[in-house]
Amino acid sequence: MGSTHKSLLLHTEVRWLSRGKVLTRLFELRSEILLLLTDIDEEKSKLFCDDEWPSRLAYMADIFDRLNILNLSLQGSNTNMFYASDKVNAFVRKLDLFISQVSKNDLSAFETLNTFWKNNEIQPNSNIITDISEHLQLLKSNILQYFPEDNSEMKWIINPFEDDYIKNIPEGILAKELFIDLTSDSTLKTAFKTKNITNFWLDVKQEYSALSTQALQFLIPFVSTYLCENTFSHLLYTKNKYRSRLNVENNLRLKVSNLEPDIDVIVRSKQHQSSH
Predict the structure, then answer these.
(1) Do 113 and 62 form a contact (C-beta atoms < 8 A)?
(2) What digits encode the pLDDT tens for the residues 121-148?
(3) What is the DSSP letter of 172?
(4) What is the pTM of this model?
């Protein structure tokens, strides 16, 4: 039928990043699927014959595509809780925008659904509009339930030089004095602009131990399963069916670490075997 796709995408519950693509592919191949279901399951084929079910499918493809984008933005080895919190808060604000636009029958935020209705000259369906609005509200509530923390008191960790955050320093007078010393150091202020946040607090750990320890408690914890999934991928590649008895612990440490060993120094520190 001239479709650009040759097959449907498979879906599994453990791969949420693929769900949006699965729904998009299902929508794009709806004509081919209708022909298939007409022969094997006439009852289900009726779902593709009217405009309502494809419209709902188009919306789900759009919203899961946006969730995929959010999930991907949270991946990476250097992601911290403040970065993730900003991304989630931005998505919640977008949901508020979508809810406002949907209430005005404006579905421009959902490209697949909007294009489907325009191309087929479909008038906005009040039932679908209501369901979309309720779903967006529910999605927002669920996200806020999983990410309820307010990190405003910890903003001094992200940029201690930006504002007077001394009132938010949780420790006693010593930590507050250290914070004044740190924020008054123009050299550190310049260095902060060129360094990763975590690396900056690691670098000042010796001189500003109390502040650094407090900051690293919030920066070091994993905020996603990215590192676990990355390690598991390396495990599958390293311990394949041809090396099923291989002890991969040391190999995985080398594979997932970003530390580069200084081979020359290591070699020089070893005693060479004298010739006989």
Answers:
(1) yes
(2) 888 889 999 999 999 999 999 999 887 6
(3) -
(4) 0.76
Query: Cα–Cα distance between 51 and 164 in angstroms, integer?
Result: 57
- Alpha carbons 38 and 148: distance in angstroms, whole number: 47
Alpha helices in the chain (DSSP H): 19-28, 30-40, 42-45, 52-73, 81-102, 111-119, 126-146, 155-158, 173-183, 186-192, 197-203, 209-219, 226-238, 249-256, 263-268
Please report, for residues 52, 223, 238, 256, 257, the alpha-carbon distance to residue 253 in angstroms, rounded to integers and kept in the order given.
52, 20, 12, 6, 6
- What's the pLDDT tens digit per position in 65-97? 999 899 888 887 778 888 888 899 999 999 999
Q: Which two tokens stand for residue 144?
A: 């806020």
- CB half-sphere exposure, 5, CA atoms < 13 A: 15
Tokens of 83: 């970065």
Name the 3-class secondary structure at 143: helix
Dist CA 8 CA 23 (whole Å): 9
